[in-house]
Automatic annotation (TrEMBL):
InterPro entries in the record: Tcm_partner
Protein name as annotated: Three-Cys-motif partner protein TcmP
Source species, domain of life: Bacteria
Length: 388
């Protein structure tokens, strides 16, 4: 599935990231030999399933990714993947069109709620017609005391800020192995923070996870647009970290005509999920700022061009950061270095970590390697020393 046939519209970037992430995520969860061999994918604002130009929306992307995984499993001799896809769409007309689009993929249902496919027996689609709040509350109340959802990924792509109370994410993320990809409607949030209407202020407060909105108002009042954005992002990120007990929060800014429209927030407790999402997001922005601006030309989306033009600069920066972290320390494992790159730098592992280590080795800043057979290789278990 390709989103790169021409300059990407700002609204399609989030779908490209969703697609790029869920393809490997499903496999990492289901094929984990120590895991439950099944996963749940949630789409809280599914829409009709297709755009006016015929391109797939989020629910069809998720379903087709599951079908592709099933086909791969058959070809590879693996057990068929158990994937549950829970969709929700409140608008009655969109809900009806989504039913048809799911049916067009070969799924059948007796009640237009539970859909199964005779050729893909372990893939189940459930479709609801509720508000997002009711949908999530009903889903979470099915979890027994002391129990947890199976490994899950929830995509939330609302039309505004009034329908995504922060408390829902707090409750959802209490589950083990739960991840969230949220489209934070920045433009409207920023515009209405200081609105005099009490109802709107309360909606912002609930949307942001605030006890009171006054502190945020004081942080943004009289500030430049950049300062306001920084305050809003920091407030939301801190609330995700503290109230949801999230280990890792990564955001990706999406601009239209130079103005910030949306900010994608990825929330996970798993460093492997963070590593995977950083890799997906990096492919949409070569600057290291995790920003997509639709004014940029096609080169912004061409990862090979990004690597050719920017790779040396970024590798040098990463090499400096790695050396600064481990300078003078002995018996440092490749796993410790990779953990640092994943959790403490802007860089994905792919295409950056090992080239940075090669630069350090070439300059003599790391030596005394154990656990490898070749120069400039860093397989699992490799140990090295960093000079002073």
């Amino acid at each position: 599935m390709s989103f790169f046939n021409g300059v990407m519209d700002h609204s399609k970037v989030k779908l490209s990231i969703l697609n790029a992430y869920t393809i490997p995520w499903m496999r990492k969860i289901v094929l984990n030999r120590y895991g439950p061999k099944r996963c749940l994918v949630i789409d809280g604002f599914s829409g009709k399933g297709k755009y006016e130009d015929g391109s797939d929306g989020s629910p069809l992307i998720l379903i087709k990714n599951a079908l592709d995984f099933y086909n791969q499993s058959e070809d590879s001799g693996w057990d068929p993947p158990n994937i549950y896809i829970f969709l929700n769409e409140l608008d009655q007309e969109n809900h009806g069109e989504l039913i048809q689009n799911i049916t067009d993929l070969g799924f059948r249902s007796e009640d237009n709620m539970l859909f199964a496919h005779e050729d893909y027996e372990t893939i189940i689609v459930k479709l609801e017609n509720k508000s997002f709040e009711d949908f999530m509350v009903d889903l979470l109340k099915e979890i027994g005391e002391g129990e947890s959802l199976i490994p899950s990924f929830c995509f939330v792509d609302p039309f505004g800020f009034s329908s995504t109370p922060f408390s829902l994410f707090v409750d959802y993320l209490q589950n083990e192995n739960s991840e969230l990809l949220l489209n934070f409607i920045y433009e409207e949030t920023n515009r209405f923070i200081t609105h005099p209407n009490e109802t709107i202020r309360n909606q912002i407060k609930g949307h942001m996870g605030l006890v009171t909105i006054d502190e945020l108002i004081s942080k943004v009042s009289g500030k430049t647009p950049v300062e306001r954005k920084k305050a809003i992002i920091e407030t939301y990120t801190n609330n995700l970290m503290q109230q949801c007990e999230a280990e890792f929060v990564r955001n990706f800014e999406i601009k239209k005509s130079g103005r910030t429209k949306l900010i994608l927030f990825h929330v996970t407790k798993n460093k492997h999920g963070l590593a995977l999402m950083k890799n997906c997001m990096w492919k949409h922005d070569e600057t290291g700022t995790y920003t997509f601006d639709d004014r940029s030309n096609l080169q912004q989306l061409d990862f090979e061009e990004i690597l050719n033009s920017e790779k040396e600069h970024h590798i040098e920066l990463l090499a400096r950061q790695i050396f600064g972290e481990f300078q003078g320390r002995r018996r440092i494992s490749i796993e410790s270095i990779e953990d640092f790159v994943i959790t403490e730098t802007i860089y994905p592992l792919t295409n950056f970590c090992k080239p940075a280590l090669k630069e350090l080795e070439r300059d003599g800043r790391i030596n005394n390697f154990r656990g490898r057979r070749r120069v400039n290789s860093y397989p699992a278990g490799t140990i090295m020393d960093f000079i002073f």
